[in-house]
Design a protein that fits this description.
This protein is mainly beta and 205 residues long. The protein has an eight-stranded antiparallel barrel.
Amino acid sequence: MRILLFILCFTWITSSAQVFKPGLIVGISGAQIEGDGYGGYDKIGFIAGGFVNTDLSEKLSSQFEIYYINKGSFDALHPDKGDYNSFKVNLNYIEVPVIIRYKQHKFMIEVGLYLGKLLGTPTLSNENGEVFVNQYPFRSFDFGGLLGISYYLNDHFILNLRSKNSLIPIRDFPSLDQGSFFNTFLNNGWYNVDINFSIRYEFGE
Protein backbone atom coordinates (compact mmCIF):
# COMPACT_ATOMS: atom_id res chain seq x y z
CA MET A 1 0.00 0.00 0.00
CA ARG A 2 2.75 2.46 0.90
CA ILE A 3 4.74 1.60 -2.23
CA LEU A 4 1.58 2.19 -4.30
CA LEU A 5 1.24 5.63 -2.65
CA PHE A 6 4.81 6.49 -3.66
CA ILE A 7 4.08 5.44 -7.24
CA LEU A 8 0.92 7.57 -7.36
CA CYS A 9 2.78 10.59 -5.96
CA PHE A 10 5.52 10.21 -8.56
CA THR A 11 2.94 9.87 -11.35
CA TRP A 12 1.21 13.06 -10.18
CA ILE A 13 4.48 15.00 -10.06
CA THR A 14 5.43 13.98 -13.60
CA SER A 15 1.98 13.87 -15.20
CA SER A 16 2.66 16.92 -17.39
CA ALA A 17 6.00 15.68 -18.70
CA GLN A 18 6.41 14.13 -22.14
CA VAL A 19 9.70 12.23 -21.93
CA PHE A 20 10.49 9.45 -19.47
CA LYS A 21 14.02 8.04 -19.37
CA PRO A 22 14.41 4.57 -17.82
CA GLY A 23 17.65 3.03 -16.63
CA LEU A 24 19.41 0.32 -14.66
CA ILE A 25 21.24 0.49 -11.31
CA VAL A 26 24.01 -1.71 -9.92
CA GLY A 27 26.17 -0.83 -6.94
CA ILE A 28 27.41 -1.45 -3.42
CA SER A 29 26.32 -0.20 -0.02
CA GLY A 30 28.33 0.45 3.13
CA ALA A 31 25.93 0.34 6.07
CA GLN A 32 25.77 0.71 9.83
CA ILE A 33 23.02 0.94 12.43
CA GLU A 34 22.79 4.03 14.59
CA GLY A 35 21.99 2.84 18.09
CA ASP A 36 23.59 -0.63 18.11
CA GLY A 37 26.73 0.52 19.94
CA TYR A 38 29.07 -0.02 16.99
CA GLY A 39 30.43 2.46 14.47
CA GLY A 40 31.68 2.34 10.90
CA TYR A 41 30.14 1.57 7.51
CA ASP A 42 31.42 -2.00 7.69
CA LYS A 43 28.38 -3.96 6.48
CA ILE A 44 28.94 -4.30 2.73
CA GLY A 45 25.88 -5.00 0.64
CA PHE A 46 24.71 -5.21 -2.97
CA ILE A 47 22.32 -2.92 -4.87
CA ALA A 48 20.43 -3.80 -8.07
CA GLY A 49 17.36 -2.27 -9.67
CA GLY A 50 16.10 0.39 -12.01
CA PHE A 51 14.84 3.96 -12.33
CA VAL A 52 12.85 6.32 -14.50
CA ASN A 53 13.22 10.10 -14.61
CA THR A 54 11.68 13.06 -16.36
CA ASP A 55 12.48 16.76 -16.69
CA LEU A 56 10.36 19.26 -14.78
CA SER A 57 12.25 22.29 -16.12
CA GLU A 58 15.61 23.10 -17.66
CA LYS A 59 17.39 22.49 -14.33
CA LEU A 60 14.97 20.36 -12.30
CA SER A 61 13.94 16.75 -12.79
CA SER A 62 12.23 14.06 -10.76
CA GLN A 63 13.27 10.42 -10.48
CA PHE A 64 11.54 7.29 -9.26
CA GLU A 65 13.61 4.21 -8.36
CA ILE A 66 13.03 0.68 -7.18
CA TYR A 67 15.88 -1.63 -6.17
CA TYR A 68 17.06 -4.39 -3.88
CA ILE A 69 19.58 -3.39 -1.19
CA ASN A 70 21.35 -5.24 1.62
CA LYS A 71 21.90 -3.29 4.87
CA GLY A 72 22.71 -3.95 8.49
CA SER A 73 25.74 -3.77 10.76
CA PHE A 74 29.02 -5.62 11.14
CA ASP A 75 31.85 -5.68 13.65
CA ALA A 76 34.51 -8.39 13.33
CA LEU A 77 36.61 -10.20 15.92
CA HIS A 78 40.01 -8.63 16.66
CA PRO A 79 41.82 -11.22 18.78
CA ASP A 80 45.18 -9.56 18.08
CA LYS A 81 43.83 -6.54 19.97
CA GLY A 82 42.22 -8.57 22.71
CA ASP A 83 38.75 -8.03 21.24
CA TYR A 84 36.84 -11.31 21.09
CA ASN A 85 33.42 -9.77 20.48
CA SER A 86 31.68 -9.78 17.12
CA PHE A 87 28.36 -8.43 15.91
CA LYS A 88 26.36 -8.75 12.69
CA VAL A 89 22.91 -7.68 11.56
CA ASN A 90 21.70 -8.66 8.09
CA LEU A 91 18.72 -6.80 6.58
CA ASN A 92 17.37 -7.07 3.03
CA TYR A 93 15.03 -4.46 1.58
CA ILE A 94 13.21 -3.45 -1.55
CA GLU A 95 13.55 0.35 -1.55
CA VAL A 96 11.47 2.90 -3.44
CA PRO A 97 12.95 6.42 -3.46
CA VAL A 98 11.27 9.51 -4.92
CA ILE A 99 13.85 12.16 -5.76
CA ILE A 100 14.10 15.76 -6.94
CA ARG A 101 17.29 16.52 -8.88
CA TYR A 102 19.02 19.79 -9.76
CA LYS A 103 21.31 19.88 -12.80
CA GLN A 104 24.63 21.74 -12.76
CA HIS A 105 26.71 21.04 -15.86
CA LYS A 106 27.44 17.26 -15.77
CA PHE A 107 26.38 16.95 -12.15
CA MET A 108 22.99 16.21 -10.62
CA ILE A 109 22.40 17.15 -6.98
CA GLU A 110 19.61 15.03 -5.53
CA VAL A 111 17.40 15.07 -2.45
CA GLY A 112 14.48 12.81 -1.64
CA LEU A 113 12.64 10.33 0.53
CA TYR A 114 12.58 6.56 0.40
CA LEU A 115 10.38 3.75 1.65
CA GLY A 116 11.87 0.29 2.20
CA LYS A 117 10.04 -3.03 2.60
CA LEU A 118 11.91 -5.61 4.67
CA LEU A 119 12.39 -8.93 2.89
CA GLY A 120 12.52 -12.22 4.75
CA THR A 121 13.61 -12.60 8.36
CA PRO A 122 16.34 -10.30 9.75
CA THR A 123 19.28 -12.06 11.38
CA LEU A 124 21.33 -10.82 14.33
CA SER A 125 24.37 -12.67 15.64
CA ASN A 126 27.38 -12.22 17.89
CA GLU A 127 30.45 -14.26 18.87
CA ASN A 128 28.16 -16.83 20.51
CA GLY A 129 25.95 -17.40 17.47
CA GLU A 130 22.52 -16.21 16.39
CA VAL A 131 20.56 -13.95 18.73
CA PHE A 132 16.77 -14.14 18.57
CA VAL A 133 14.94 -10.79 18.57
CA ASN A 134 11.41 -11.78 19.54
CA GLN A 135 11.10 -9.12 22.26
CA TYR A 136 12.28 -6.22 20.09
CA PRO A 137 11.48 -7.20 16.48
CA PHE A 138 12.65 -5.20 13.48
CA ARG A 139 9.97 -3.15 11.75
CA SER A 140 8.74 -4.50 8.42
CA PHE A 141 9.51 -1.18 6.72
CA ASP A 142 12.11 1.59 6.69
CA PHE A 143 11.33 5.24 5.93
CA GLY A 144 14.09 7.80 5.49
CA GLY A 145 15.72 10.63 3.62
CA LEU A 146 18.58 10.80 1.15
CA LEU A 147 21.09 13.25 -0.24
CA GLY A 148 23.35 12.50 -3.16
CA ILE A 149 25.17 13.57 -6.30
CA SER A 150 25.43 12.06 -9.77
CA TYR A 151 28.04 12.62 -12.45
CA TYR A 152 27.21 11.94 -16.11
CA LEU A 153 30.20 10.31 -17.81
CA ASN A 154 28.29 10.55 -21.09
CA ASP A 155 24.67 10.39 -22.27
CA HIS A 156 24.21 6.90 -20.83
CA PHE A 157 26.65 6.05 -18.02
CA ILE A 158 26.26 7.75 -14.64
CA LEU A 159 28.19 7.56 -11.36
CA ASN A 160 26.13 8.13 -8.22
CA LEU A 161 27.15 8.67 -4.60
CA ARG A 162 24.39 8.82 -2.00
CA SER A 163 23.93 9.04 1.76
CA LYS A 164 20.72 7.74 3.37
CA ASN A 165 19.35 7.75 6.90
CA SER A 166 16.22 6.33 8.52
CA LEU A 167 13.88 8.99 9.90
CA ILE A 168 12.01 6.57 12.16
CA PRO A 169 13.49 3.63 14.13
CA ILE A 170 13.78 0.27 12.40
CA ARG A 171 13.82 -1.37 15.84
CA ASP A 172 12.58 -0.05 19.19
CA PHE A 173 15.50 -1.50 21.12
CA PRO A 174 17.08 1.10 23.45
CA SER A 175 19.95 2.95 21.80
CA LEU A 176 23.43 1.82 22.83
CA ASP A 177 25.19 4.83 21.28
CA GLN A 178 26.14 7.38 23.89
CA GLY A 179 25.55 10.98 22.86
CA SER A 180 24.41 10.20 19.32
CA PHE A 181 22.14 12.62 17.46
CA PHE A 182 19.20 10.21 17.35
CA ASN A 183 19.63 9.17 20.97
CA THR A 184 19.76 12.80 22.12
CA PHE A 185 17.17 14.57 19.96
CA LEU A 186 14.86 11.86 18.65
CA ASN A 187 13.32 8.63 19.89
CA ASN A 188 15.55 5.93 21.26
CA GLY A 189 15.93 3.07 18.85
CA TRP A 190 17.96 1.72 15.96
CA TYR A 191 18.23 3.53 12.61
CA ASN A 192 19.64 2.46 9.25
CA VAL A 193 22.50 4.64 8.00
CA ASP A 194 24.19 3.80 4.70
CA ILE A 195 26.37 5.20 1.94
CA ASN A 196 25.73 3.93 -1.58
CA PHE A 197 27.91 3.98 -4.67
CA SER A 198 26.33 2.89 -7.93
CA ILE A 199 26.88 2.82 -11.66
CA ARG A 200 23.79 3.59 -13.71
CA TYR A 201 22.88 3.17 -17.34
CA GLU A 202 20.24 5.50 -18.77
CA PHE A 203 18.45 4.45 -21.96
CA GLY A 204 17.44 6.83 -24.70
CA GLU A 205 19.22 9.44 -26.75
